[in-house]
Design brief:
It is built from two helices and no strands. By secondary structure, the chain is mainly alpha-helical. The longest helix is centred in the middle third of the chain and has 14 residues. The model has no long low-confidence stretch (mean pLDDT 72).
Protein backbone atom coordinates (compact mmCIF):
# COMPACT_ATOMS: atom_id res chain seq x y z
CA UNK A 1 0.00 0.00 0.00
CA UNK A 2 2.68 2.48 -1.04
CA UNK A 3 -0.02 4.76 -2.45
CA UNK A 4 -1.61 5.18 0.98
CA UNK A 5 1.78 5.93 2.56
CA UNK A 6 2.41 8.53 -0.12
CA UNK A 7 -1.01 10.12 0.42
CA UNK A 8 -0.40 10.24 4.17
CA UNK A 9 2.91 11.98 3.57
CA UNK A 10 1.20 14.55 1.35
CA UNK A 11 -1.50 15.18 3.95
CA UNK A 12 1.06 15.58 6.72
CA UNK A 13 3.10 17.91 4.54
CA UNK A 14 0.04 20.07 3.86
CA UNK A 15 -0.89 20.13 7.55
CA UNK A 16 2.70 20.90 8.45
CA UNK A 17 2.53 18.19 11.09
CA UNK A 18 5.63 16.31 12.25
CA UNK A 19 6.29 13.07 10.41
CA UNK A 20 6.18 10.93 13.54
CA UNK A 21 3.38 8.99 11.87
CA UNK A 22 5.93 7.29 9.64
CA UNK A 23 7.48 5.73 12.74
CA UNK A 24 4.08 4.65 14.05
CA UNK A 25 2.98 3.01 10.82
Amino acid sequence: MEEVDHLCSLLLDQLGAPRKVEVLT
